[in-house]
Design goal:
heterodimer, A: mainly beta, 6-stranded mixed β-sheet, B: mainly beta, 4-stranded antiparallel β-sheet, 11 strands, 0% helix, globular
């Protein structure tokens, strides 16, 4: 079964603090994709990153970085020097490959990040 | 390129009624997926349509149905509405290419917020 767990329901930080959002996943597939999406109050899901199961290299994009570890089935997301505009709900998601898994995302429950000035 | 559009953005219905939501994918995309987002259940996959055929579905009752037209626009219908159907309904579009090793990035629309009274 596919499952994504985001244990942190809500996190509050003060601007400029670093914050890490945790994501743990379960899958029997050997090939899969992991994602992070941001959902601002407007509701639209904004794509942040995609990572396939073959690639365990960490990635950095500006203030954002991601740590993928297959050994612990985790795909954590760190925001460095957080800003008020980072306040949103962040979702981790899992997708398999193959015809019957296409575009079928399993989402975690989301972590609400509050960045206070 | 225009993004994914969903209409209407807000909808209020009463129990027992039926509702139809519309999603227009990005031009050239042939796949449309639907998701339901509620505070209790989070984001859950409803179904995916590709070239007018339902290719994949989640675990929702038969009251939830959909269809896709030849121009890739998709509609989702919920019959005999229940209070628990109140949710944000998101659709996502992608190219829907069928190669097993390829990835189909999904682009999400702003959602339709349905309130059932």
């Amino acid at each position: 079964a596919q499952k994504v767990t985001q244990a942190q329901t809500e996190i509050s930080v003060v601007e400029k603090e670093d914050v890490t959002l945790d994501c743990v996943y379960e899958t029997r597939d050997t090939t899969y994709y992991l994602f992070w999406y941001k959902q601002p109050p407007s509701g639209e899901l904004v794509f942040l990153i995609r990572r396939n199961s073959f690639d365990e290299q960490n990635e950095i994009s500006g203030r954002y970085s991601w740590n993928f570890q297959k050994s612990t089935s985790s795909f954590n997301f760190t925001i460095t020097a957080s800003q008020v505009v980072d306040s949103a709900v962040y979702f981790c998601a899992l997708s398999g490959l193959g015809l019957y898994n296409f575009n079928k995302f399993y989402f975690g429950s989301g972590t609400k990040l509050n960045v206070k000035p | 390129k225009a993004g994914v559009t969903q209409t209407p953005r807000y909808l209020i219905k009463t129990r027992g009624q039926q509702v139809t939501l519309s999603c227009s994918p990005i031009s050239g995309h042939r796949s449309v997926s639907w998701y339901q987002q509620t505070p209790g259940q989070g984001l859950q996959f409803l179904f995916e349509y590709f070239s007018e055929t339902q290719r994949n579905k989640g675990n929702f009752p038969g009251r939830f149905s959909g269809r896709q037209f030849s121009n890739s626009r998709s509609e989702m219908n919920v019959s005999t509405l229940e209070l628990g159907d109140s949710a944000l309904y998101l659709c996502a579009s992608s190219s829907g290419l069928a190669e097993p090793s390829s990835y189909n990035e999904q682009f999400f629309g702003p959602g339709t917020r349905l309130t059932v009274l």
